[in-house]
Specification:
It is a single chain. The protein has 333 residues and is an all-beta fold. The protein folds into 2 domains: 4-132, Lipocalin, CATH 2.40.128; 144-322, Sandwich (Jelly Rolls), CATH 2.60.120.560. Helices cover 1% and strands 41% of the residues. It has 1 helix and 23 strands. The protein has one helix spanning 4-7; strands at residues 32-39, 53-59, 67-71, 78-81, 83-87, 90-96, 103-111, 114-119, 127-132, 144-146, 150-151, 161-163, 172-175, 178-181, 188-190, 197-205, 210-215, 219-224, 256-264, 267-272, 275-282, 302-303, 310-322. Strands 4-3-2-1-9-8-7-6-5 form a 9-stranded antiparallel sheet, with no helix packed on it. Strands 10, 11, 13, 14, 16, 19, 20, 21 and 23 form a 9-stranded antiparallel sheet that branches. Strands 12-15-22-17-18 form a 5-stranded antiparallel sheet, with no helix packed on it. Residues 2-23 and 46-51 have low confidence and may be disordered.
């Protein structure tokens, strides 16, 4: 899970951008779930993160019942926004840290079906474009067929993988058949993109460490050295900030764990070390690991590298395709 530390550099200086002039939109147009494409450049974020995707959910825009949820800088968690208002058709909202005095200001316009926004916190000229999150009718309804398994990690080198921000994949290496991360690294992603699939991953986490598996590069399944602690929205096995596991099935640091994850549309089923954590849980939207906001497109498998030392092995993806249903023959045919 990306934390305040990850994004701290983003809010070190101050800037305000001018948004494209447009006729004033109706505040109701802001309602909905939005995938935010952050228009960043190297140096805008901390050491490795030069791209990012955020998420915004608005209901009851302009009414006393308005509710806003936000995933983005500076902490990457799912936050309820309590300070928000519309002024001349423009949305102004403030992110406030749960602890401490940190604040971040945002200004957002609705322009031709998109959101145009900017951070106005001390620090940097940073813009983002909001795209309405697409709907999907796909359900894990028994019509999906397993294809040929794909061995994503060959145990020899990083063939088939690259870094999110650099092809060098700094901080990752292969030794003794294991994929190793130092913990101060770029996130690692597959070169190929995938849509619906089953994923088997085995991992060994160091003490006081943290990693995660990004599904389609957008939805993080948590890996954390929190053995024996109660499950929650950020514990081992959680779909971070979205779905809590019914049990914390992680083993103590230094032992190998086995993840089996099934993703169809936005329904996810996860098993850890033989224990079912959740079944057909519905993913509401992006999580903090996301770097590509376009939820309607296939995406890579992502391994988080910037939080702590971790080892991986036996990474196998099995594509899922929908079984074709034969149409009945017309009578008399």
């Amino acid at each position: 899970m990306h934390t305040f530390k990850t994004f701290f550099a983003l809010f070190a200086l101050s800037a305000l951008i001018a948004l494209t002039p447009t006729a004033r939109a109706a505040v109701q147009d802001f309602n909905g779930r939005w995938d935010l494409q952050v228009q960043a450049k190297p140096g805008d974020f901390a050491q490795f993160t030069t791209t990012a995707a955020w998420w915004l959910d608005i209901t009851g825009a302009g009414t006393p019942q308005m509710k806003i949820q936000f995933i983005g800088a500076p902490d990457g968690a799912l936050d309820d926004i309590t300070e928000a208002k519309f002024q001349d058709g423009v949305l102004h909202f403030t992110w406030v840290a749960k602890r401490g005095n940190d604040r971040a200001e945002y200004v957002v316009k609705y322009v031709n079906g998109l959101l145009q926004g900017a951070t106005t916190s001390p620090g940097i000229s940073l813009k983002f474009i909001g795209h309405r999150a697409p709907e999907t009718s796909e359900r894990d309804d028994g019509t999906w067929v397993r294809g040929k398994p794909i061995k994503l990690f060959n145990g020899k080198n990083l063939e088939g993988w690259t870094g999110v921000n650099s092809p060098k994949a700094q901080g990752w290496s292969v030794k003794d058949g294991l994929l190793k991360c130092t913990g101060n690294a770029d996130d690692l992603i597959t070169v190929e993109n995938y849509w619906n699939f089953e994923l088997h991953v085995e991992y060994n986490l160091a003490e006081k460490s943290n990693s995660g598996i990004g599904l389609r590069g957008r939805y993080e399944v948590q890996i954390m050295s929190d053995y024996g602690r109660p499950p929650n929205l950020h514990s081992t096995g959680s779909l971070v900030s979205r779905i809590a596991p019914v049990v914390n099935a992680g083993k103590p640091a230094g032992e190998w764990n086995r993840y089996d994850i099934r993703l169809v549309g936005r329904e996810v089923t996860t098993t850890l070390n033989g224990q079912r954590l959740y079944e057909k849980g519905v993913i509401d939207g992006l999580t903090g690991i996301a770097f590509d906001p376009f939820e309607g497109k296939p995406g890579p498998v992502e391994l988080q590298g910037d939080h702590g030392a971790v080892e991986y092995r036996n990474i196998v993806l099995t594509p899922l395709t929908q079984r074709k249903v034969k149409s009945a023959k017309p009578k008399g045919a």
